[in-house]
Write a structure and sequence with these properties.
The protein has an eight-stranded mixed β-barrel, surrounded by five helices. Helix 4 links the parallel strand 3 and strand 4. Helix 8 packs antiparallel against helix 12. It is an alpha/beta fold. The protein contains 20 helices and eight strands. The protein folds into two domains: 131 residues, Alpha-Beta Barrel (TIM Barrel), CATH 3.20.20.450; 207 residues, Hypothetical protein af1432, CATH 1.10.3210.10. It is elongated, with a radius of gyration of 23 Å.
């Protein structure tokens, strides 16, 4: 199985600070003004690099970055959280092929392609929402000039454990540190050759599955006085995060925040009960325009956010939307109902981290786009709720069956959320596998659905931009 190639549509890429065009120039003002309209469209976000290639000089003359005839760009991201659940940054995860579980390209070539396809083409702001991007740099990029194409404040250069540490690598890291770049060591092992890089690094990652609590504590006691931030990675449970924190770790990487903790038997607060009822009411099939308007208008925050989302989507239009009724007439019930559902879900969140809602939004948009391809736009709209509610148990702190009890979902979507094998469940599995960089599982699920595997990275890229625009609206509300 292979990922079919696809081209990104260049006109839909927006970056906060700059966009690297086909000629290598900066086009941020022109693109940003034009493309806010595109984020809420149903067309996939992508980039066409044009006739000229994006050229990056590396230390290895056999490795160049530009156009190639390979398969699709597969980029996902994994959050790095602080103890309070806030996102500190994202590691960018990359895959060139799907013929094996791990990346089939060489370390240098995979890192170079990550840099060109993910960082330069999609744009760091879309990928990381303005937070630091942890980018894997193989030896060739470390010894070349690739890092100089990025602002030091936007990236953390991650040196992988398999990079051979010699005098050239040490000098390259020293030079990058002097230029203001932050460096990280991945899977650091005390006593290894990577010790030579400790004077230049700001972060050290430690695999909690491969080290004991005592080993992690000793390393923290040694490195924290030197100002090194320790990142516990492969943290898959809240208990593991708590143990790592007790050992002196303050940053955590893994999907523990997407897993339900021990469920509570206490009653939900009244405001969250009201929001849960509103989420259910918003998604009734018989909901009319008058009732929808009334539901939204009774929540001031919801009204404000829906209007901001609408006007953001219509950026550049001669007509500003000034009322919920106006928005319903102009855009239709389905679009407004979808945005209202997003904001209500955010109001329900009690998981301790906003990233849980962010992941639910990415899943919702991905499932919607793939559902449109699978069953058509009329039925595919329900797949938006499939993704949006996929973390409802985590958000509410309730078993999924209880969380869905008052939700008027289609039976197929409800059963899929409860884990019943079905076409919707298979689609959700594909999206979840992709977001976690489980490339082989994602490709297999797409093939079993009869969908082109290339549509999954397209949908994910679209969802990143869509969720980024919603995030901007939320933060300004």
């Amino acid at each position: 199985m292979t990922w079919s190639s696809f081209e990104f549509q260049r006109e839909t890429i927006v970056a906060k600070d700059s966009v690297v065009g086909a000629d290598g120039g900066l086009e941020d003002q022109k693109l940003r003004a034009r493309d806010r309209l595109k984020f809420f469209s149903r067309r996939p976000i992508a980039v066409r690099r044009g006739a000229s290639s994006l050229a990056i000089r590396t230390a290895d003359p056999d490795i160049s970055i530009g156009h190639d005839a390979r398969t699709a760009v597969c980029v996902a991201r994994q959050p790095i959280l602080d103890r309070s659940g806030r996102v500190y940054g994202y590691e960018l995860l990359y895959r060139a092929e799907t013929d094996a579980t791990d990346c089939t390209a060489s370390g240098d070539l995979a890192g170079a392609r990550t840099f060109s396809d993910a960082v330069l083409a999609l744009g760091l702001d879309v990928l990381t929402c303005g937070r630091p991007a942890f980018v894997n740099f193989p030896r060739s990029l470390l010894l070349g000039d690739a890092a100089t194409l990025l602002p030091p404040a936007s990236v953390v250069i991650e040196v992988l454990e398999h990079v051979a540490i010699d005098a050239d690598v040490v000098e390259a890291c020293r030079a990058l540190c002097r230029r203001g770049f932050a460096l990280a060591l991945d899977d650091f092992v005390p006593g290894s050759d990577a010790e030579a890089l400790l004077p230049f690094v700001s972060f050290v990652k430690v695999d909690v599955l491969q080290t004991s609590a005592a080993e992690r504590a000793r390393l923290a006691a040694r490195l924290r006085p030197r100002g090194v931030q320790l990142i516990a990675e492969k943290v898959e449970t809240a208990e593991a995060a708590t143990q790592a924190h007790a050992a002196g770790y303050r940053l955590f990487q893994g999907y523990y925040f997407c897993r339900p903790t021990t469920f509570t038997a206490t009653a939900l607060p009244a405001r969250r009960v009201a929001y849960l009822g509103l989420l259910g009411a918003l998604n009734r099939e018989d909901l009319g325009i008058d009732e929808l308007e009334d539901l939204i208008k009774h929540d001031v925050s919801l009204t404000y956010r829906v209007l901001r989302s609408t006007n953001s989507w219509l950026y550049g239009s001669r007509h500003e939307i000034t009322s919920i009724r106006h928005a319903l007439v102009f855009l239709g019930v389905d679009q407004i109902r979808k945005w209202a559902s997003v904001w209500v879900l955010a109001g329900l969140n009690s998981s301790g981290t906003q990233e849980t809602v962010s992941v639910a939004l990415l899943r919702a948009r991905c499932c919607e786009l793939l559902g449109n391809t699978l069953v058509g736009p009329d039925e595919g709209a329900s797949y938006f709720l499939l993704g949006l509610c996929s973390l409802l148990d985590v958000i509410l702190g309730r078993p999924m069956a209880d969380a869905l009890a008052d939700m008027p979902l289609a039976s197929a979507i409800n059963d899929a959320l409860l884990g019943a094998p079905s076409q919707p469940r298979q689609l959700l599995n594909a999206v979840v596998a992709y977001e976690r960089a489980m490339w082989e599982e994602a490709a297999l699920a797409m093939e079993q659905l009869g969908l082109s595997v290339a549509t999954l990275p397209e949908a994910y890229a679209d969802a990143l931009g869509w969720a980024r625009e919603l995030s901007k609206t939320a933060h300004s509300a």
